[in-house]
Specification:
Blueprint lengths: L4 H37 L13 H28 L10 H18 L3 E8 L2 H8 L1 H17 L7 E6 L2 E7 L3 H18 L14 E8 L7 H17 L5 E3 L1
Parallel strand pairs: 4-5
Antiparallel strand pairs: 1-3, 1-4, 2-3
Helix pairs in contact: 1-2, 4-5
Amino acid sequence: MILSRGPLLSNILIVFFDIWLLYRFLLSPLVKITRNIDQMNDNKTNVHIEATGLREFQHLAMAFNNMFETVRSHTHQLEILSLTDGLTNIANRRSFDETLNREWRICNREHLAVSLLYIDIDLLKNYNDYYGHQSGDDGLKKIARIIDQNARRPTDLAARYGGEEFVLLLSNTDSESATRVAKNLIHEVNQARYPHEKSDVTNHITLSIGIATLIPSDKISHEHLIKLADKALYRAKHEGRNRITIA
């Protein structure tokens, strides 16, 4: 009876060793792959499978890692495109809305002013009718570049709001500083002298700008800032265009 325990113990050890091999080289790599696939589905940013186990699993892990890097790169590019205006290549309205919402919360917490420049290209319809829509698109691109160049700080954002309208968001900026930026914009566009023979203002492209400045609070929404700037822009156009009006 005692002698029979030796072979039995050996068989048990062999079985446990086989189970360990099965787990080490088959089940464990599969569990890791499954876990990392779940992380990718949960949009985790750092997903990487260690190339362990059988050679086939090592190849599978490397293929998965390469695939994930490709997917992450393409996703990042799509995110950028979703926040960029297709014509002018500056931020679009969605990007502006998200940035304004974020900066509004920050300035509310820090008790800092937020300024908004609401910008309109004067009489762009007349420009398109006379020069053609292709030239009109070129004009939009040129003006967008000038506006974007005036978004000099990391928290500043120039965006196309729609049609011939642009916005320039200036976080932590008082009304006086925002007015200086607006005057510089007017000056640069006038200096560029892009021809506009059908303008009622002058013979080149001009801008009208409405400025609004608020210190955020829990009682004021950022939509109110946009409305104030929009009203100021309307007054600038009504008073003759090629000018700045402050809300």
